[in-house]
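Write out the bound-state structure for 2-phosphoglycolic acid.
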Amino acid sequence: MDAKSLIIGNWKMNLSHLEAIVVIQKLWYRLDTSDFDRAEVVLAPPFTALRTLQTLIMADRMPFGLGAQHVHWEREGAFTGEVSARMLAKLDVGYVIVGHSERRAMFGETDELVNKRVRAVLAEGMTPVVCVGETLSEREAGGTERVVTTQLRGALRRLTAEQRGQVTVAYEPVWAIGTGRHADAGTANEVCSLLRDTVSAMAGPRAGEQVRILYGGSVNPGNVASLMVKRHIDGALVGGASLDPDTFAAVVRYWL
Ligand code: PGA
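---
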């Protein structure tokens, strides 16, 4: 585990490339060097704004990382509408979100496809951010443990132990995403601990220590600190609260 927390803003299908310029610049003015010493801050815009943000980050030497929200597993070819890991790596993308619950629910994402994407991302030297999480009915039926460990095991198939430790996992209970209802910190920490144990069981204790585990689901400036102090939570995947620079800056500076 890293001492720095990892805070990723998942913009989803929001902000044109012009709006993205405004947001990253405002965010940059609101954060200072000590914030970046404590937190690795990553922005995951839609594909159309990746090149724009990359140019700004490079030209102004902004200490932000860049993330993508999706990827295809093939290197190139006749896959209309898709973008490959190699193309993302060329844009200095460091993180790729894979298996987000919105993709699982709306776009037919399966554990098998998640695994293909994870391997493609790792092969290009980037970090996959594997999202796992249970729905409300699964939680109420006592299925949380089974659902999240099955998703994680599926995502980590056919990887070396070293690669398994390099993955970032995001525990995002589906009922907490975009609902304003977050998991209480104790519960979130328990599930994150279970996910860490799952990585240790698959790849050894070193990989279990090394793997970074984020919490996501209605993270905001009011609840982020209670989550981040937990032993097994290494950062946050932030949706709605990452779109507004003031709000996102307050999330990043959670210790203040
Ligand atoms: P939210 O989204 O913060 O708006 O709940 C989180 C996510 O979907 O990654």
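---
The pocket of 2-phosphoglycolic acid is lined by residues 10, 172, 177-178, 216-219, 237-241 (CB under 6 Å).
The beta strands are 5-10, 39-44, 65-68, 95-98, 127-132, 168-171, 212-216, 235-238.
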